[in-house]
Each structure stands twice: as structure tokens, then as C-alpha cells.
Amino acid sequence: MQNFDVAIVGGGASGLACALQIKRLNCKLSVAVIDAGERLGKKLAATGNGQGNVSNKRLSAANYHGGGAALAARVIGGDSSLPLSIFNCLFVEDEEGRIYPAGRQASALTDSLIRELTAYDVKFIHPARVIAIDDSFVLKLSEGYSLSAEKVVLACGGKTQKQFGTDGSAYALAQKFGHKLTPLYPSLVQLKTDTTYTKGLKGIRVDCVVCARLHGSHLCSCRGDVIFTDYGLSGNAIFKISSALAGTDGAELSLEFLPDCRVEEIMSDIIKKSRLGYPDCELLSGTLHNQVGRAVIKRSGPRPEDIVKTLKNFTLRVTGTLGFDYAQVTHGGIDCSDIGDDMQSKLAKGLYLIGEYVDVDGDCGGYNLLWAFASAGCAARSITGMI
Ligand SMILES: Cc1cc2nc3c(=O)[nH]c(=O)nc-3n(C[C@H](O)[C@H](O)[C@H](O)COP(=O)(O)OP(=O)(O)OC[C@H]3O[C@@H](n4cnc5c(N)ncnc54)[C@H](O)[C@@H]3O)c2cc1C
Asked: Could you tell me if the CB of 189 is within 6 A of ligand 1?
């Protein structure tokens, strides 16, 4: 049976980055990366709508959620530039602080990692799923053979979008060592809402402030695109809001249309149109997307003050999400109270747990990849004795 210094289970963003950082710190260590998929780094190559949003300049502890949020803040240490040194390319930043490879091609990130790992002679084993790991770090593979390692890194991702090899079955590998799994919910995901007042708006995109409330208490709010769909709402504002709704029941959204227009301005625009003889259903025409305007007036009735009130607080009941198959990230994972600041298990020495696999999830905008790369770097330094 072949023995490696380090076996990394999962050749996604965190697993590949961990292998690379181990090799850069100590090229003599033998490293194997085992992945369930035909292609390594397949999800990384699909991130950011294919453009690879690897980090975000606007970084604070509040961008992370889950029981491991404080651990994430310590490991990242406020440094949004951590991922940049991993790749052999230039990066650019957009107006929202999102950092992308200058070529805006996520697949180039995967290529960069694999090229350098190949040069370092890292052993890639795929497609092969690790189905069991025993106490002496013998890894049993789905292909019918086993390998052993001195140290093992679990970088198996979460439970979202199983076409990327992440179906949640790998949590059992850590649970076998006594690690606990927190409840799992889809996050950064489209929301199902009551569609009574949004029928006929499918495909329309509007700029809104979205505010989420639970039983009357404010949860969070953000501004961005909202896209109406036949099941409810999509768009970047909805993705952002969805992470605050993970695990809730009975939440309500309030959409504020025309966030840059004051109530008095909108009111006088409506009154002017009314005096000019516009039919009731057209009182918002030209000011708000016509169909959305009609939906607002259908709900509010024709009185200008009611129209403005509804337009500034268009409430919709949340009935669910599109689920793990559509979500970008998993809220929940392996409980971080049994993981040290070097990402090593407190229950099994030499076992490391990194990336989305653990109970940390970030906001939309590059924060999840930043966590994947930062936790990978931290584990690599510990494995090579640098911390
Ligand atoms: C469509 C999409 C777009 C996204 N865009 C962004 C973005 O722009 N910016 C951002 O920050 N985040 C984004 N994310 C989230 C981000 O991609 C993930 O959080 C990140 O990839 C997590 O890295 P990871 O290494 O923990 O897991 P993954 O990258 O999911 O890798 C886990 C790997 O483990 C393998 N695996 C699982 N179980 C086993 C097993 N038992 N044996 C062997 N291998 C196994 C899987 O095949 C997989 O390759 C996006 C996610 C999706 C789905």
C-alpha cells in the first residue's frame, strides 16, 4: 500500500490550494490529492459566473456566518489579498471590491493550480471517492484499493450542487472521528415567495433595497438587483439576503422600489400624471418598470399615498428556497468547536478540516473562496511545521 506524507481528500478550491502551499513550503513532502470528480477544481472553474471572484477588498468579520465565523475571522486576519499569491496571474478589483483574475476566466485559476502542482509531482488520484478513513489514516477508495498517510486533510466541500462532487456524503468521514455536524441549509440561493402579487413579472430585473424580517424583527437589508421568477425571487440582492434566512421559518421580505427617489418626488410625479388623465394603472409609467408599476397599483389601489406606501414597502412572504441543488454554498458543516486555529482536529492529531466542509459560510462576493484559500494556507503552515 502506497504511503504519503499528506493525503488531501477533495481536489476543489481548498484542497488544491492546500497541496500547493504545502509543496511551496516543503517540496520534499509527498502529497496525494484524491477527488471524486472526473475534473479537478471543477467548481472553482465555474465560480463568479465563470469569472472567478476569489476575494473581496471590503472585508470584515461580519461577512462570515456559522458557528465557525470567529475562527474564520482569526484565520483570515483581515487580509483579503491572501488568495492572490496562490495563483500565477494578475488580478483586478471591481467597484464593489470584488477581486477577479485580470483575464476574468475562472478556469484559468484551476489551470494555474494544476500546472504548478504537476510540476511539484503531486499525485492526483481521480475520479475516486474516499469512502472510509481508519484511525491509523488508511484511506479506503471507491475504486477498491487503499492508501495511507501521515497526515490527512479533509477538503470535501459542502452539500450544494452535487454535479461538482459535493453531495454531503463526505461529512461521515469526519463524523467517524467524533466530529459533530451542525444542521445544514442552502445559502446564497434563490428564494421561493408567495407569488400572488408578482404574477406576470417573470424575468423582470429591478434595483431595490431588500429588507428581511422575521416575526416583525429586522434581520438584514441590502441593495442590488432583484429578478422576478415564477417561483419567487432571484438576483444578487436575494442571494445576499438568503444567507441571513438560512434555517428560518416565516420570514418576510420588503422590497423598496426606486431607492434613489424621495417619497415627495414620487408623490408629485403620480399626482401630475393623474391630472394629465393617465389611467390608474399607468400612474407609475416611465418612473418604475411598467409591469412592476402596474403590479404595485393593482395591490395598493389608485390613491397616490397608498401607491407610494406600497412601492416603498412591497412585502412578500418567503415560503422556502430552491434548495441545495441551486445554492452556491452550504450554511452549516463540521462543528468548529473541535477544530483548532491551525485547522487541525482537536479529536484526531494529524487530521485537518478546511474550506466549506466546516461550519463557515461567507457572503456573496468572493468571501467563500477567500475562506477556502485562507483555511488551506493555515493547514499547510501547520502541516509543514511553520506554525
Ligand atoms: C456556481 C457557483 C459559483 C460560485 N461562485 C463563487 C464566487 O464567485 N466566489 C466565491 O467566493 N465563492 C463562490 N462559490 C462558492 C465556492 O465555490 C465554494 O465555497 C468553494 O469552492 C469551496 O471550496 P472547497 O474546496 O471547500 O470545496 P469544493 O470546491 O466544493 O471542492 C470539494 C471537492 O471535494 C470532492 N469530494 C467530496 N467528497 C469527496 C470524497 N469522499 N472523496 C474524494 N473527493 C471528494 C469533490 O469532488 C470536490 O471537488 C460558488 C459556488 C458555486 C456552486
From this structure: no
Any residues with CB less than 8 A from the CB of 316 and at least 6 apart, and which? 193, 194, 197, 198, 232, 233, 252, 253, 254, 255
Residues 195, 270: one domain?
A: yes
Are residues 68 and 162 both part of a single domain? yes
Residues 6+ apart with CB under 8 A from 48: 54, 98, 100, 106, 366
157 CA distance to ligand 1 centroid (A)? 5
Distance, CA 8 to ligand 1 centroid (Å)? 14
We report the CATH number of the domain holding residue 94 as 3.50.50.60
Asked if residue 372 has its Cβ within 6 Å of ligand 1, the reply is: yes
56 Cβ below 6 A of ligand 1: no
Reported as a single tens digit per residue, the pLDDT across 40-74 is 999 999 999 999 999 999 999 999 999 999 999 99
- CA of 42 from ligand 1 middle (Å) equals 8
pTM over 0.85: yes
Domain of residue 105 covers 3-185+331-383
- Same domain, yes or no: 378 and 309: no
